[in-house]
Design a protein that fits this description.
The protein has 603 residues and is mainly beta. The longest helix is centred in the C-terminal third of the chain and has 17 residues, at 584-600.
Length: 603
Amino acid sequence: MLHKRILSKKEKTFGIVAVFIAFGAFMFTGVSSASTTVGTDITTSGSVTAGSLSITSGFTAYAPVFGGITPTGALQSGTAGTAGQVLTSNGASALPTFQAASGGWTSGDSNAIYNSNSGNVGIGTTTPSEKLQVTGNIRTTGCFKANSWMPVNSGTTSSLLAIGFANSTTGVIASGNSGFLRTTNSGATWSQVASNASRYIRAVAFANSSTGVAVGDSGTILRTADGGATWSSITSGTSNDLRAVAFASSLTGVAVGSGGIILQTANGGATWSLKTSSTINRLSAVAFVNNSETGFAVGDNGTIVKTIDSGATWETVSNNISNSLLGVAFANSNIGIAVGYYGEMVLTTDGGTTWNALVKFTASTLQAVTFVNSTTGFAVGLSNVLMETLDSGITWTTVASGMTGDFFGVAFATSTTGFIVGGTGMLIQQTDNKIIDGNCLDLAELYTSSGSVIEKGSLVSTHVKDGSFVARKSRGAYDDQLLGVVSSDPAIVIEGGSVVMGGPKSSDDNKIPVALAGRVPVRVNLEGGPIEVGDAITSSSVYGVGMKATKSGKIVGYALESWNNKEQGEITVRIVGVVDYTPRSYSKSLEKRIEQLEKLIGK
């Protein structure tokens, strides 16, 4: 039975409430050209099938349903020509989802809320420049996770062995013996380029924005004069495999490889000449120091050779390294790092005169290393190993890449845009390498203070007060209760079960943020002597003030700036947490004494 009451003129003028009550089910089979104007109510004991139902202007609609509504199309509110809200279904057994017709927002199955558009999302801003940009503070009671390295479709399944950039926009990837991949828009897109070579290409480097050289197996040398768009073969004069190439200037460069082979060019790679090498070991990597005439090549069995005349002559640098080295790079004129088998990392802080092995941060073989600036660098290797340093190679931490497989090369187009290449066409892009301008650079945890004023940048140690641990200014040199440094402006603060990013750190004035990791301004003096970049920092005899560590003890991190101006000041320190430290010189002295004692007892 269908009952419809005819509306009076007065009711039409002032509007009326329309109520739909269904004891069975409404079924909308689609939209037809016919419309039914509904009055106060429709009742049915069965089903109502209609082409479309519309509420005339001035009516308020309520739709309590005591049966069910089964849409075969979509339900949308709003009149023709205006944006509405759509109820759709993702399948026969799926829950219906709500979607704003104009914005692409959808919610429903699997607790999902997402936007089908490809734009950015802003909270507190109408012009977001990132995928998610929030104006104001963010607080989470769970964990905040971010992965700044993201996979990119390379368009190939061939192994990608090396990568190099001519400038901030143009770069080339060596794709085994399948040619090259080339970008002219900082890696946003890549296109395939023929190599005209049948051998594997192992390395690529640019002398300037247009001239580049690629080297590979059986003495293969390719040259480009148009930023990698086309390549031509160059006679190398050798059949040895070439493993690396680098330029000291726009004209002068070297290529190195198996059997200790070293070739030099003085005309941007147009011709090459064989140079006398000081080793027969395979050389796998080469780098020049800040575009100077000084360069280093590294290779098998810990081999390190040096040139001071752009590759014309070479000499072996003695060291105690036995593992083969596969990559080398310099952060500045003094600090360089070589990497290789079994996680080997070898550091120089005197421009390559001496090299010392670091503690191993990974057991995987490291294939390549690069520096973005004087402090920040990345190393990559087998088994998807990605390492990062923020203190010029002194300490390294593992970074999640979100990928599995072997990494072979890493390079940056700009200071914030980098790429990793690897097996089976693996290409990973970094669009923000976490180099942040300003002081908001560290991760901190809130601790209850002792009640006295503790300035930012002060070293603090643990103390028991009223049966509880509290933080107070460090007491004495090499304080064995050292806790850390009071952060000036932490990026992320942990407080109990919550994480706060930016803004106020706590409502409790007795709590202070103690840096756990990152770069932090630290108060220092000259009690331990002048501070150089890379020196370990510990507590001095002055409460809350740090100094250079010259003997074994607790330290908070490593200096990223020098200090020798006056008795007390402030420098940026790379916080590594409170760790036990033993100076290299102290360690070597101890080893010599043990050696002397062993000789005395005839061991």
